Amino acid sequence: MIPERANRRRPDSELAPARKEVAQLFNEAERFFLAGDKEMARRRVRAARKAAMKVRLRIPEHNHRFCRECESYLKQGMNCTVRIRDGIRITRCAECGAVRRKVLNGKR
């Protein structure tokens, strides 16, 4: 039998500090990336993902900003390409070649 506590939604008071930390780390990653230090940007992305995983926090607002394969910070036109075809956003990382697809507006 599953304990009742396991299905409980985590209160915002527990998640708010983690959200703030993740947002700050992504802002730092962007600053380092624009300054030309891609390795420090990658470290910040890795730290942000680790902080989010620690409290099981989803980060959909930052999902398009990093590559899941190589954990690079992504910036359109600099190290990734974004195409929209038939209602699907296709993002290709220039660092490792990984491709991510996202259906837009539920159309197919």
Give the overall pLDDT as a whole number. 89
Number of domains: 1
Distance between the termini: 40 Å
**Approximately what portion of the residues adopt beta-strand conformation?**
15-25%
Supply Rg.
16 Å
Please mark out the parts with pLDDT under 50 across 5 or more consecutive residues, or reply none: none
Portion of residues within helices: 25-40%
What's the number of extended β-strand segments?
Answer: 3
Q: Which structural category do the helix and sheet elements fall into?
A: alpha+beta
Inertia-based shape:
globular
How are strands sequenced across the largest beta sheet? Answer: 1-2-3
Q: What is the H/E string? A: HHEEE
Largest sheet: 3 strands, antiparallel
Q: How many DSSP helices?
A: 2
What does this structure look like?
The protein is an alpha+beta fold. Helix content is 38%, strand content 16%. The protein has two helices and three strands; from the N terminus they run H-H-E-E-E. Helix 1 (12-35) runs antiparallel to helix 2 (38-54). The longest helix has 24 residues, at 12-35. It is globular, with a radius of gyration of 16 Å. The model has no long low-confidence stretch (mean pLDDT 89).
Primary descriptors:
alpha+beta, single chain, 108 residues
Any chance you could write out the topology, listing elements then pairs?
Elements: H1 12-35, H2 38-54, E1 80-85, E2 88-93, E3 99-103
Antiparallel strand pairs: 1-2, 2-3
Helix pairs in contact: 1-2
